[in-house]
Amino acid sequence: MRDKFSALSIDKNCTELHNRSPDIYFTDQSAKIEGNSVTPGEWQEFSDKNVLKAEREKNAAINLRSVADGVLMQTYNDLKKQFDIVNLAFENRIEEMGKAKTKLETHLIKVKEEIGEMEANIDKLKQAIYEKQAPMKVSQTRSDHRTQRPNIELCRDPVQYRLISEANEINVNVTRLQELLADAESSLKGLIRNQLSLEEDIEIKKKSLYIDHDVCVEHRKHIQYVRR
């Protein structure tokens, strides 16, 4: 193409020459055929080949552009599809996490109620044990006083046996109450551990929800896929 522009410029310059042109001159080389010159047929054949080559390259470029457009469109569709899949996964995860957090919070409320009831039960057991002290003192005091009966009056009468039975019964009741108190206090410790575990799990769920909903999803709102 560059040669054709050069030849066109030379021929145009030649057509503009006339007898009074300032840049005309004599030369011995003008009246001969150059050895490297070509015939009009060869020139036409060369030009036709260049045209065909250019046409093929143009068609190849068109095909390449079509393939590139197809690849770009497929890439866009794949990215958009994956983007939508990830968004849906976030939505499902956030919903699942929210339900789990609500369930944990509901269970925590019940555990706190159970802790309150258990603490009240422990107070009642402690009070019941305390209230057994006075009857035990009375029974033991009576028995001690009766050991001071003189001589033959120190008799193992029914009253004495009844006092012994009463003291034993009070001891059994106190022992049972103390066992119940120990069980209640152990249960209370378990409930408190459960409460702490639930509160920790709820905080983890809150942080996860914040990261997924308030950070990741918000950032993804600024992602835009432009179809070209």
UniProtKB/TrEMBL annotation:
InterPro entries, A to Z: Tektin-like (IPR048256), Tektins (IPR000435)
GO cellular component: axoneme; microtubule cytoskeleton; nucleus
GO BP terms, alphabetized: cilium assembly; cilium movement involved in cell motility
Keyword Membrane: no
Main location, first listed in the record: cytoplasm
Domain of life per record: Eukaryota
Keywords assigned by UniProt, alphabetized: Cell projection, Cilium, Coiled coil, Cytoplasm, Cytoskeleton, Flagellum
Record localization: Cytoplasm, Cytoskeleton, Cilium axoneme; Cytoplasm, Cytoskeleton, Flagellum axoneme
Role noted for this protein: Microtubule inner protein (MIP) part of the dynein-decorated doublet microtubules (DMTs) in cilia and flagellar axoneme. Forms filamentous polymers in the walls of ciliary and flagellar microtubules.
Family affiliation: Belongs to the tektin family.
Protein name: Tektin
Protein's organism: Paramuricea clavata
